[in-house]
Amino acid sequence: MSRRILPSGRAALLVECDDLDDVLALHDALDASAPDGLVELVPAARTVLVAVDPRRLPLESAASWIRRASSSSTDASDRMDAAASAEPVVVRVRYDGEDLAAVAAELGLVVDDLVARHTAARWRVAFIGFAPGFAYLVGGSPTDWPFEVRRLAAPRTRVPAGAVGLAGGFSGAYPRESPGGWRLIGRTDAPLWDASAQPPALLAPGTRVRFAAVGP
């Protein structure tokens, strides 16, 4: 495991990680030991941005804290234990997406089995990207959600708000209408993004998520 701590302006540090699993481990360790002066943790696919108030937490002190947290970051089994004890956000889904049958066939499953695996998986928000409130969800372990789903060869020009999709090893839901290349398996009415709410995003990095099937 190798992590580089790089300056990112006057009030943030960027930590480069080996892979997404390393990002999740570091994010959990930093979140569990957050000192006074931490403003925000922003994970991505290979990095964690650590934003601070330098008047309360100078960058030199923040770098020392990150190094200490790195030495105690959790492994996958520890995170699975934490996922089991955390209360998940339940996202109710109507599994009627236009790609549902095709995705099930590509994975060697029948539709009911794909829905069962999607609702049984212990999901967590790895990071936010693409659009405000769009959460990239990963399974709790390789056996929890072992599937890799191909993106569409040509992205759709219009994906409706609330569409639930799969791409690579991720699942996610579109918070607003937009173009997109994920394979659509259902739709939800969950308020994924509300600019007038506090916080505006329903799902934040580290949040545990469970999908629940609802009738047509």
Q: In words, what does this structure look like?
A:
Keywords: ATP-binding, Hydrolase, Nucleotide-binding, Transferase. Pfam families: CT_C_D. GO terms for molecular function: ATP binding; hydrolase activity; transferase activity. This is Carboxyltransferase domain-containing protein. The chain has 216 residues and is α+β, with helices and mostly antiparallel strands. A hairpin with a 2-residue loop joins strand 9 and strand 10. The mean pLDDT is 92. Helix 1 packs across helix 2. Helices cover 25% and strands 30% of the residues. It has 2 domains: 4-74, Gyrase A, domain 2 (2-Layer Sandwich), CATH 3.30.1360.40; 85-213, Cyclophilin (Beta Barrel), CATH 2.40.100.10. It is elongated.
Structural class: alpha+beta
Biggest β-sheet: count, sense, barrel?
4 strands, antiparallel
**Overall CATH architecture of the largest domain:** Beta Barrel
Name the helix and strand elements from N-terminus to C-terminus, one letter apiece. EEHEEHHEHHEEEEEEEE
Q: What is the tally of beta strands?
A: 13
Q: List low-pLDDT spans.
A: none
User: Treating each run of at least 4 consecutive H or I residues as one helix, how many helices?
Assistant: 5
Which band does the percent of strand residues land in?
Answer: 25-35%
Short characterization:
The protein is an alpha+beta fold and 216 residues long. The chain has helices at residues 20-32, 59-71, 76-85, 100-106, 111-120, and strands at residues 4-7, 12-16, 38-43, 47-52, 89-93, 123-128, 135-139, 156-159, 163-167, 170-173, 178-180, 183-187, 208-213. α1 crosses α2.
